[in-house]
Amino acid sequence: MMSESRVLISPLQDILSHSRFILTLRSDTGNYHGLILFRLSADSTSNPQLYVMEATCPHLGAEMSHADIEEYEDSVVAVCPWHRYDFDLKTGKSETGLSTCTYAVQVKSDSQSGEEQVWMAAPEDGKNWRVVELRPVSEGPFFAVRIEFADPPPSPIKLTSASNVIATPFALEATEPVVPEKDPPKTFMEWAALILNTPNPTLKVERTRYAVHAFRTGIITSIGHKVSDPPRPPPQPPRETYMNIVEPGKIQSGKRKNRAVMLHALANIEQWAIDLAWDIMVRFGPMHKDLPPAFFSDFAKMALDESKHFSLLRARLASLSTPYGSLPVHASLWDSATLTSKSLLSRLAIIHLVHEARGLDVNPKTMEKFRKAGDKESVDVLEIIHSDEVTHVTTGHRWFLWMCEQQQKKMRGEGGEGGLVDVDPVKAFRDEVRRCWRGDIKGPFNIEDREKAGLSPEFYENLRGEMPYPEVDGRLAQNPSVKGGDEKMDRVVDALAAVRVDYGE
Ligand code: FES
């Protein structure tokens, strides 16, 4: 019997493409649950055999998306890929004595439309749950999915294989093995540091895919952020020497940018975005040893998404005879990473809830430009990127709220202020932006997609960053909209507008 409180997951039809899905729920008060939906029966419509369980193993936190499913006489169990503990899909119990949460699933016909719909029992630690992510899990072996990116859903775009893209003066081809022959990384954090130090864009993508797959399937069984001497991220990830890195103001801007220039700028952002996903794990994991495994699963998924985005854009660039690396790029996104390198709260606020949320605002306009140019293939790519980016802002929101909760617990424990201490996430976000951002949080806003990601207008409306402008030759560059003819100061001003330029604003 399902309890009265339940959550609509999706129409049954929408989950027949795969047999397992990553499912994320959010309550109206900002609680999150990361879950896995399993569909076990090939007889998908009459008896789909659906189960939902928590996405992380209660033993040491492995992701259960790639758990083996084994059937016994009267039960079905999910076997954790790390240490092979098994959990009954109905009861969540394991013979080891541990147990995980499972949720009853039902298929019901909608009384009005007659559509078959999948419902699940609602978690008890919140109300008004909604699905914020439902994405299929790739089940093939790593080397079978390396080109097609079956996770998330197979794209309508045929990716060009790496070997077809390489016939250019730009050395996109990986020159080293994906897994180094000497001292290969043993933990997930060692992989993070290696990938951040990998300048070759193709190798960065291949290593990301390998490391995430290895993490999910139990080839790597340690995150490695709690060790006494964790790997350190580089101050700024290196780039290939052939990349022409220039000041942001030197990048072609304005309304008349051609499609290749825009795609190249976006591919550059995706390369930095891969690095940002790895950097947040390896930089802040050791600083916050209480970060749960779900944090690493979420940002691993993000790193994989960004590498998929880069590959899709690179394939589009190749089709426009503009290989990645043939145009100048800038590194201004890393300026925000450097600025927020001391505080996880600041990093989540500025990179994921300001920069990435801004992407949600401007992506539809960018897609429209490509649509008007008749470039359907690029529109398809940008649509995939956009829907993934909503989930990335969701991830930023989830862990920002988690950090606020931790701060609240700490203050209650240490300050003796009892229940009076309340770390309000909206106030905390606005404080971070005032401290670490310059100028207005600019609209117009994509209110609908921001809301899907958890960002209600109270977070970002009428908000202005108050960070002072840097000193250049003893003067403050105080007004970003006015250039003073001073070359050094103008570069500072240009850097502030760089991200807007990349999106074609
Ligand atoms: S059995 Fe799952 S992490 Fe150990």
Automatic annotation (TrEMBL):
It holds the Pfam family DUF455. Residues 45-114 form the Rieske domain. Keywords: 2Fe-2S, Iron, Iron-sulfur, Metal-binding. Gene3D superfamilies: Rieske [2Fe-2S] iron-sulphur domain. This is Rieske domain-containing protein. It comes from Collybiopsis confluens. GO terms for molecular function: 2 iron, 2 sulfur cluster binding; metal ion binding. The lineage of its organism: Eukaryota, Fungi, Dikarya, Basidiomycota, Agaricomycotina. InterPro entries: DUF455 (IPR007402), Ferritin-like_SF (IPR009078), Rieske_2Fe-2S (IPR017941), Rieske_2Fe-2S_sf (IPR036922). CDD domains: Ferritin_like, Rieske. It comes from the Eukaryota.
